[in-house]
Design a protein that fits this description.
By secondary structure, the protein is of the alpha/beta class. It is built from 20 helices and ten strands. Helix 4 runs antiparallel to helix 11.
């Protein structure tokens, strides 16, 4: 998802209409209603102009004036009702098709694509896509589409009517509009490049702001944080976004100003031209008054059209980003395996090499490692050694460029995604809990789990006493990111979720790294229940926590440099022994 790709305006229009396609008939009805309402607005001016012409000519009677005024009032009331009805329909379509259906498709796609494509540094962009960009598209479909189409239709109808009254005056009005849009075309000459850069800057700023919000407790308590790290990056992104907006505004201003002036000029041109036509006897005073009244508002529909067209230019990159996410290939399969026995949990990395997109040096290079069922394999190494990358390959966050990851001899690429999720579970160092109840967070691991099964998992995770003390037990809301629980309790709830999941392979990121000693003991006890009879792959940040591992794999720059038990590695006096003694 490039985010800063240059997207032609026509492509943005096509994509947005494609997103709205499921509601096309209701949207067409909304357009028809708003077009009728706009036509009613013009009709009111025509009726009132006719009243004025009759009064000026001294031909009006009280009955005529009252009747025509009543007609104008009735048309105005009906026009307001049609406008409100049309917008209500378009709002309903936008909410149903975009807020519900499109977001549903996007969330479903997020569940299918490689996790590495949409997590980490991409999280802020994903948030902007699913919230800001979809919301902007929803507003455009709700207001922009019916108003733009109705404005264009009404303008064409008024133009036709002006030609029926006096072709010469109509030609003058059209010429002014043509010049105005020629200036607009000039103003928008580089809009595709400008809007792509602006949208990319906005996405970066949105992601930086999300990072600041997530880390607000830490940033609030540490001195000097406001001028450094994520806050500084967010401020830099805000400055970059403001600069892009300013660049676009400066580039648009000269020709854009000319457009606005010309679009407001029809009356200034029609008045002298109309007086000349009246002097020559080509039109009557009544015709002139009607032309001036209607012609004075001749550009009003086009101003609405222009306002939404500018929003449309801004939305092309957003639409393209959404479509890119929908088009992101799902986890590829090399051919779904036939009925095979998979489930004992033998995890093998066979000659695996993987490099992140755009990075030349592999994060993992020619690495082979086997994790046997019922054993614990620990990955150790300096930061950047490839530990996290390797365990993410086991969960198919990415697929290796060469080699294979196998479970019980079956390439993970041959396993349906749902089956792979049954076989491998993760317990991350940074636990994520949903703003929901204890039960809802546990059932992420097994949707149909009974209350008895959940309590059994909580007891195994040493958390049953804590949950029993909560106001509503399993039905107690935990708050955003599980804020009702302590760090250690959140970690144990994640372990209970993994126990409930009951996968044969457990991937563990140092679970005790962020908890106090008392909670660390409880977490360690909970892990003992989790790993019993399973294959455990641990990313170790502290060597002493994995000294009892069955196999310790030492990584350096993406390569496996040592393997063995703790005592054997110490005796070998290699890199592991050096780290242990340091």
């Amino acid at each position: 998802m490039s985010g800063d790709a240059v997207v032609p305006l026509w492509r943005g229009v096509r994509l947005m209409l494609g997103f709205a396609r499921p509601g096309r008939y209701r949207l067409a009805a909304a357009v028809a209603l708003t077009a009728a309402a706009t036509a009613g607005e013009v009709a009111v001016y025509v009726v009132l102009a006719h009243v004025g012409a009759l009064l000026l000519a001294g031909q009006a009677t009280v009955t005529q004036v009252l009747t025509l005024t009543a007609v104008a009032l009735a048309v105005s009331v009906v026009r307001s009702g049609l406008w409100a009805w049309g917008l209500a329909v378009s709002h309903d379509v936008a909410f149903d098709v975009l807020s519900v259906r499109l977001r549903g498709r996007l969330v479903e796609r997020l569940h299918q694509v490689p996790l590495g494509r949409v997590t980490g540094p991409r999280a802020g962009v994903m948030r902007a896509l699913l919230t800001d960009d979809v919301e902007e598209l929803e507003v455009f479909v709700a207001h922009g589409v019916p108003e733009m189409v109705s404005a264009a239709v009404v303008w064409l109808a008024v133009t036709g009517w002006l030609f029926s009254v006096d072709p010469m005056l109509a030609g003058v009005a059209v010429a002014v509009v043509v010049l105005a849009f020629a200036a607009l075309t000039r103003a928008l000459r580089d809009s595709d490049v400008m809007q792509a850069r602006t949208h990319a800057a906005w996405s970066a700023f949105s992601g930086g702001l999300l990072e600041v919000i997530r880390g607000l407790p830490v940033l609030h308590l540490l001195p000097g944080a406001a001028g450094h790290g994520p806050v500084r990056r967010a401020c830099d992104c805000a400055d970059a976004y403001a600069a892009r907006e300013s660049d676009w505004a400066q580039a648009f201003r000269p020709a854009g100003t000319a457009f606005a002036v010309l679009l407001a000029a029809p009356l200034a041109v029609l008045l002298p031209a109309g007086l000349w036509r009246l002097d020559t006897g080509a039109i009557t005073p009544t015709d002139l008054i009607v032309v001036l009244v209607v012609g004075g508002g001749y550009s009003a529909p086009l101003l609405r059209f222009y306002h939404h067209a500018m929003r449309l230019a801004l939305l092309t990159s957003a639409a393209n980003g959404l479509q890119e996410l929908l088009d992101t290939p799902a986890l590829p399969a090399v051919g779904i395996a036939p009925a095979v026995t998979v489930g004992r949990g033998r995890l093998e990395f066979r000659d695996v090499t993987f490099a992140y997109p755009g990075v030349d040096r592999p994060a993992v290079a020619d690495l082979s490692l086997t994790c046997e069922p019922g054993t614990m394999t620990a990955l150790v190494g300096a930061s950047g050694a490839g530990k996290t990358t390797l365990v993410r390959l086991a969960g198919r966050f990415f697929d290796p460029q060469t080699g294979a990851v196998l479970i019980d001899g079956v390439d993970v690429r041959q396993l349906p995604a749902a089956r792979l999720r049954q076989l491998v579970t993760f317990v991350f160092q940074d636990v994520f809990l949903f703003d929901d109840t204890v039960a809802a967070n546990l059932r992420v691991g097994r949707p149909n789990a009974t209350a008895g099964q959940m309590w059994e998992a909580l007891r195994a995770a040493r958390l049953d006493d804590v949950v029993e003390a909560l106001p509503a037990g399993l039905q107690t809301p935990l708050g955003e990111r599980g804020g009702r629980l302590s760090a250690g309790e959140r970690q144990r709830l994640a372990i209970a979720r993994a126990i409930l999941h009951d996968a044969p392979i457990v991937v563990l990121d140092e679970a005790t790294a962020h908890v106090d000693p008392d909670n660390a003991t409880l977490v360690q006890d909970a892990l003992s229940s989790l790993v019993a009879g399973r294959t455990l792959l641990v990313v170790a940040h502290r060597l002493r926590t994995v000294a009892e591992a069955d196999t310790i794999a030492v990584l350096d720059s993406g390569r496996l440099v040592e393997t063995g038990r703790h005592a054997d590695l110490l005796a070998a006096r290699g890199r592991y022994a050096s780290w242990w003694r340091s």
